[in-house]
């Protein structure tokens, strides 16, 4: 795998267009790979280190050739490096994940009606979003250190977590990511940051490669990690 860092040129019309339409950014990023050799490509946009630039972080199966991007798309030369992560069971890593937490509507769900049966809907509460990530961790070879308490506060009656639960949840609302490029889609965006613990190194590496959750063509699912 390869990890690339692109500082987008916000003066460039194509870059600004793609920022509003992540599916179009996904198509633009594909230009860095030969036809038929794209493989798995995951990406995410983050605020840059100086708080003014916007960075596209790209994880790819094959080595990219960023010279194929539109002229002026990036503010400086793209950076990339091979990503060969060696992890061990019990190792703790800091992580960041921008995800689209969803659940599939059951056929018997009367509240949402039969027309929604089998479709995915966004998980809107922090309680549901954390539970979703914990399930993905169980499936993907990692856990979050600390204890999540699935209970209601005696005064607010809201779900709460213990102080040592090492996870920060940042809702970003509904991202407008439709394929037609009109910025009127309805993907629920949530950014998770914190510390994870590797439980199964092989499964964890597979999770890093495949990404987490749905909406990967729209800038979701890239799990980035670094030493804790």
The structural class is alpha+beta
Tell me which CATH architecture of the largest domain applies here. Answer: 2-Layer Sandwich
Work out the number of β strands.
13
Query: Which stretches of 5+ consecutive residues score pLDDT under 50?
Result: 178-184
Shape label = globular
Give the biggest beta sheet. 5 strands, antiparallel
CATH topology name of the largest domain: Alpha-Beta Plaits
Roughly how many Å is the radius of gyration? 19 Å
Total separate domains? 2
N-to-C SSE series? EHHEEEEEEHEEEEEHE
Describe this structure in words.
With 228 residues, the chain is of the alpha+beta class. The chain has two domains: 2-82, Crispr-associated protein, domain 1 (Alpha-Beta Plaits, 2-Layer Sandwich), CATH 3.30.70.1200; 92-227, Alpha-Beta Plaits (2-Layer Sandwich). It has four helices and 13 strands. Strands 5, 8, 11, 12 and 13 form a five-stranded antiparallel beta sheet that branches. Strands 2-3-1-4 form a four-stranded antiparallel beta sheet, with no helix packed on it. It has a two-stranded antiparallel ribbon with strand order 6-7. A hairpin with a 6-residue loop joins strand 9 and strand 10 (159-161). Helix 1 crosses helix 2. The model is unreliable at 178-184 (pLDDT under 50).
């Amino acid at each position: 795998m390869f990890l690339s860092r692109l500082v987008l040129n916000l003066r460039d019309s194509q870059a600004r267009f793609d920022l509003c339409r992540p599916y179009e950014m996904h198509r633009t990023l594909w230009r860095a790979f030969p036809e038929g050799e794209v493989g798995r490509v995951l990406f995410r946009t983050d605020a840059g280190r100086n708080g003014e630039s916007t960075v596209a972080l790209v994880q790819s199966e094959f080595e990219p050739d960023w010279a194929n991007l539109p002229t002026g798309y990036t503010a400086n030369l793209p950076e990339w490096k091979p990503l060969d992560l060696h992890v061990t069971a019990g190792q703790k890593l800091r992580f960041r994940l921008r995800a689209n937490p969803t659940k599939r509507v059951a056929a018997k769900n009367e509240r949402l009606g039969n027309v929604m049966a089998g479709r995915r809907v966004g998980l809107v509460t922090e309680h549901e979003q954390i539970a979703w990530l914990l399930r993905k961790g169980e499936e993907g070879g990692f856990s979050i250190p600390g204890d999540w308490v699935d209970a209601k506060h005696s005064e607010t009656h809201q779900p709460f977590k213990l102080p040592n639960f090492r996870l920060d949840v940042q809702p970003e609302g509904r991202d407008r990511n439709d394929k037609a490029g009109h910025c009127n889609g309805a993907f629920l965006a949530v950014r998770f940051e914190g510390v994870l613990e590797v439980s199964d190194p092989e499964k964890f590496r597979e999770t890093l490669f495949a990404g987490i959750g749905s909406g990967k063509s729209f800038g979701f699912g890239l799990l980035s990690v670094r030493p804790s």
